From TrEMBL:
Pfam families: Coat_F
Species this chain originates from: Aquibacillus halophilus
Keyword flag Hydrolase: no
This protein's name: Spore coat protein
InterPro entries tied to this protein: Ferritin-like, Spore_coat_CotF-like
Lineage: superkingdom: Bacteria
Keywords assigned: Capsid protein, Virion
UniProt feature, compositional bias: Polar residues: 1-22
Segments traversing the membrane: none
Region (Disordered): 1-25
Lineage: Bacteria, Bacillati, Bacillota, Bacilli, Bacillales
Length: 109
Protein backbone atom coordinates (compact mmCIF):
# COMPACT_ATOMS: atom_id res chain seq x y z
CA UNK A 1 0.00 0.00 0.00
CA UNK A 2 1.25 3.46 -0.85
CA UNK A 3 2.62 5.30 2.20
CA UNK A 4 0.98 8.54 1.11
CA UNK A 5 -2.50 7.08 0.87
CA UNK A 6 -4.99 8.65 3.32
CA UNK A 7 -2.46 11.18 4.59
CA UNK A 8 -4.09 14.38 5.69
CA UNK A 9 -2.62 17.79 5.06
CA UNK A 10 -3.61 19.86 8.06
CA UNK A 11 -2.29 22.53 10.40
CA UNK A 12 -2.36 22.05 14.18
CA UNK A 13 -5.93 22.55 15.36
CA UNK A 14 -6.83 25.73 17.22
CA UNK A 15 -8.84 24.56 20.20
CA UNK A 16 -12.34 25.90 20.74
CA UNK A 17 -14.75 25.29 23.63
CA UNK A 18 -16.71 22.05 23.38
CA UNK A 19 -20.09 23.32 24.53
CA UNK A 20 -23.65 23.12 23.20
CA UNK A 21 -23.28 26.73 21.99
CA UNK A 22 -21.71 27.37 18.63
CA UNK A 23 -18.01 28.22 18.80
CA UNK A 24 -15.77 30.05 16.30
CA UNK A 25 -15.12 26.86 14.34
CA UNK A 26 -18.86 26.17 14.07
CA UNK A 27 -19.64 29.72 12.92
CA UNK A 28 -16.89 29.80 10.29
CA UNK A 29 -17.80 26.31 9.06
CA UNK A 30 -21.47 27.33 8.76
CA UNK A 31 -20.58 30.45 6.78
CA UNK A 32 -18.14 28.50 4.58
CA UNK A 33 -20.86 25.95 3.77
CA UNK A 34 -23.25 28.76 2.89
CA UNK A 35 -20.68 30.46 0.65
CA UNK A 36 -20.02 27.17 -1.18
CA UNK A 37 -23.76 26.79 -1.79
CA UNK A 38 -23.99 30.39 -2.99
CA UNK A 39 -21.09 30.04 -5.45
CA UNK A 40 -22.74 26.92 -6.89
CA UNK A 41 -26.02 28.81 -7.28
CA UNK A 42 -24.38 31.88 -8.83
CA UNK A 43 -22.52 29.61 -11.24
CA UNK A 44 -25.82 28.15 -12.42
CA UNK A 45 -27.32 31.64 -12.72
CA UNK A 46 -24.32 32.77 -14.80
CA UNK A 47 -24.74 29.81 -17.13
CA UNK A 48 -28.40 30.68 -17.67
CA UNK A 49 -28.32 34.50 -17.75
CA UNK A 50 -29.74 35.73 -21.04
CA UNK A 51 -29.20 39.44 -20.36
CA UNK A 52 -25.65 40.83 -20.56
CA UNK A 53 -26.14 43.45 -17.83
CA UNK A 54 -27.53 40.85 -15.43
CA UNK A 55 -24.69 38.51 -16.38
CA UNK A 56 -22.11 41.19 -15.53
CA UNK A 57 -23.75 41.93 -12.17
CA UNK A 58 -23.97 38.23 -11.34
CA UNK A 59 -20.36 37.77 -12.40
CA UNK A 60 -19.22 40.49 -10.00
CA UNK A 61 -21.27 39.04 -7.14
CA UNK A 62 -20.03 35.53 -7.96
CA UNK A 63 -16.39 36.65 -7.80
CA UNK A 64 -16.93 38.43 -4.48
CA UNK A 65 -18.67 35.35 -3.08
CA UNK A 66 -15.91 33.08 -4.38
CA UNK A 67 -13.25 35.29 -2.80
CA UNK A 68 -15.13 35.24 0.51
CA UNK A 69 -15.38 31.44 0.30
CA UNK A 70 -11.63 31.19 -0.34
CA UNK A 71 -10.83 33.47 2.61
CA UNK A 72 -13.02 31.36 4.89
CA UNK A 73 -11.37 28.17 3.61
CA UNK A 74 -7.93 29.68 4.29
CA UNK A 75 -9.03 30.65 7.82
CA UNK A 76 -10.37 27.14 8.49
CA UNK A 77 -7.21 25.53 7.08
CA UNK A 78 -4.90 27.89 9.01
CA UNK A 79 -6.64 26.98 12.26
CA UNK A 80 -6.49 23.24 11.56
CA UNK A 81 -10.26 23.00 11.21
CA UNK A 82 -10.12 21.88 7.57
CA UNK A 83 -7.91 19.18 6.12
CA UNK A 84 -7.33 17.77 2.66
CA UNK A 85 -6.00 14.44 1.48
CA UNK A 86 -2.40 14.41 0.28
CA UNK A 87 -2.14 13.72 -3.43
CA UNK A 88 -0.71 10.35 -4.39
CA UNK A 89 2.31 11.36 -6.49
CA UNK A 90 2.04 8.28 -8.70
CA UNK A 91 -1.59 9.14 -9.57
CA UNK A 92 -0.65 12.78 -10.21
CA UNK A 93 2.13 11.66 -12.57
CA UNK A 94 -0.21 9.23 -14.36
CA UNK A 95 -2.82 11.95 -14.86
CA UNK A 96 -0.15 14.35 -16.07
CA UNK A 97 1.08 11.81 -18.62
CA UNK A 98 -2.47 11.05 -19.73
CA UNK A 99 -3.39 14.66 -20.38
CA UNK A 100 -0.04 15.84 -21.74
CA UNK A 101 -0.92 14.25 -25.06
CA UNK A 102 -4.13 16.28 -25.24
CA UNK A 103 -2.39 19.62 -25.76
CA UNK A 104 -2.53 19.26 -29.53
CA UNK A 105 -6.33 18.92 -29.26
CA UNK A 106 -6.80 22.21 -27.41
CA UNK A 107 -7.62 25.41 -29.28
CA UNK A 108 -4.64 27.65 -29.87
CA UNK A 109 -4.65 31.06 -28.19
Amino acid sequence: MNQQQNQKVQNPETQVPKTPQMNDKDFVNDILTTEKYMTDSYSTALNEASNQAIYQDLSTIFQETQDCQRNLYNLMFKNGWYSVEAADQQKVQQAYQQFTGYTNQLPQH
